Amino acid sequence: MTTTQAAPRQEPGAPEPQERSPSPARGSGGGRLTPPWLPWLLQAPALLVLGGLLVYPLLWVVTLAFQDFNLRELRTGGFHWSGLDNFREILGDSTLWQVALPNTVVFAAVNVALTVVVGTLVAMLLLRLGPWLRGVLTGAIMVAWAMPAVTGTYVWVYIFDTSDGMVMRLLSTLGLADPDTTNWFTDRAAFFGIATLNVVHHGFPFVAITVLAGLLTVPKEVLESAELDGAGAWRRFWHITFPLMKPIFAVVVVLSTIWDFKVFTQIYLMPGGSGTNREVLNLGTWSYVTALSQNRYGSGAAIAVVLTLLLLGITLVYLRTLFKQEEL
Amino acid sequence: MTTTAVPPAPTAPDGAPAYATDGRGGPRAPRRRLRGRLGNAVGFVLVLAFSVGPALIMFSTAFDARANDGSRSLLPSDPSLSNFQTVFGEAGFGRYLLNSAMVGVGTVLASGLLALLASVAVARFRFRLRTTMLVLVLVIQMVPLEALVIPLFIQASSLDMLDSLIGLTVVYVAFSLPFAIWMLRGFVAAVPVELEEAAYLDGASWRQMFWHVLFPLCLPGLIATSVFSFITAWNEFVFAITFLGDEDKFTVAAGLRQFFTQYGTDWGSVMAGSTIITVPVMVLFVIVQRRLSEGLVAGAVKG
Question: Which residue intervals define the domain ABC transmembrane type-1 in the entry (chain B) (predicted)?
Answer without folding.
Answer: 97-288
